[in-house]
Write a structure and sequence with these properties.
This is Pilus assembly protein TadB. About 80% of the residues lie in helices and about 0% in strands. The chain has about 325 residues and is mainly α. The relative contact order is 0.05.
């Protein structure tokens, strides 16, 4: 490694350290409102006290110390990622669909963390290459920036995968939950009591969604309005149709058991149709093991005895 590259690495390290010191000094000069108010409410009961309102002590844990030191940098980086990428509404929508109880800013901080992990891997690889072979500093910097960008994009793609996986799980659970609700209503229970029974007796992502609806109803929200909120927040048309069907049935007095049985049957039929369509689209792929694996083995078993016989008879 040439002296010029060593000088560049040392200069970058010194600049990074100076940047961290300046950022920390700026944060110290602007104390949070909670830290300013906390000394005057110290004698109040500790019930409901959030961790952010705890007083920093000398026996601070390493994790909290790291959060206090690097937290402002992560928040600023998350704001920068939000300004560059945008799409806060789409991210919030996917967080709701994935069932992740986080804000958009918390998700941006996770993206920054993933980006820093990618940056660190690329930086370590660049340093290894610089010690064993020649690599330009511009190429190394561009590679590290690309690693940061890839980490940020991978976290967002994983969020989309989490939302899609949760929705598939909801589709699988939907017919069973709908049938349980229909049986409870047909047995004479009210919609709220049937919903409570199903939520207590079942588990899964759809049960979690129905549990939120039940919590809204118990806080005073009308049943129809709570199901309308579920229909508006979900990303699945069948769940939205299910919620709207229950809302309309409660408002107009339609037999709810018949509606739930019909919706469960529709979902099962839609799943069966989707499976047939998927098999039709993958018909060529299904022929690959037959053509390239089963057929050659069959031909080999059919002709191998004849070839052996000919080799024994023909001199």
């Amino acid at each position: 490694m040439s002296p010029a590259m060593w000088g560049g690495v040392l200069g970058a390290s010194a600049a990074l350290g100076l940047l961290l010191v300046v950022a920390r000094v700026q944060v110290i000069r602007r104390p949070h409102l909670a830290l300013r108010v906390l000394p005057y409410v110290r004698d109040l009961p500790q019930v409901g006290r959030t961790p952010s309102l705890e007083v920093a002590s000398a026996s601070m844990s390493p994790a909290s110390a790291a959060v206090r030191i690097f937290g402002p940098f992560l928040w600023a980086a998350a704001d920068g990622v939000e300004r560059v990428l945008g799409g806060a509404t789409s991210v919030r929508r996917r967080l709701e669909r994935a069932g992740i109880d986080k804000s958009v800013h918390d998700f941006r901080i996770e993206q920054v963390t993933w980006g820093l992990a990618g940056f660190s891997l690329c930086a370590a690889w660049s340093l290894f290459r610089a010690l064993t072979a020649s690599i330009g500093p511009v190429v190394a910097v561009l590679l590290c920036l690309a690693g940061f960008a890839v980490g940020v994009v991978l976290r967002e793609n994983w969020l989309s995968s989490q939302a899609a996986a949760r929705e598939r799980q909801i589709v699988v659970e939907f017919p069973t939950v709908a049938e349980l609700l229909a049986l409870a209503v047909a047995a004479g229970e009210s919609p709220v009591s049937a919903l409570d029974r199903v939520v207590r007796r079942s588990g899964g992502e759809l049960s979690v969604e129905l549990g939120r609806v039940l919590a809204d109803i118990r806080t005073g929200q009308p049943v129809a309005l709570a199901f309308d909120g579920m229909a508006a927040s979900t990303g699945l048309p069948l769940v939205a149709r299910f919620a709207r069907g229950i809302s309309v049935a409660i408002e107009r007095g339609t037999p709810l058991a018949d509606v739930l049985h019909a919706q469960a049957a529709d979902v099962r039929e839609a799943g069966r149709r989707a499976l047939i369509e998927s098999a039709a689209r993958r018909e060529v792929l299904m022929m690959v093991p037959v053509v390239f694996l089963v057929l050659p083995i069959t031909v080999l078993f059919a002709f191998f005895p004849g070839v052996v016989g000919l080799s024994l008879v023909v001199p």
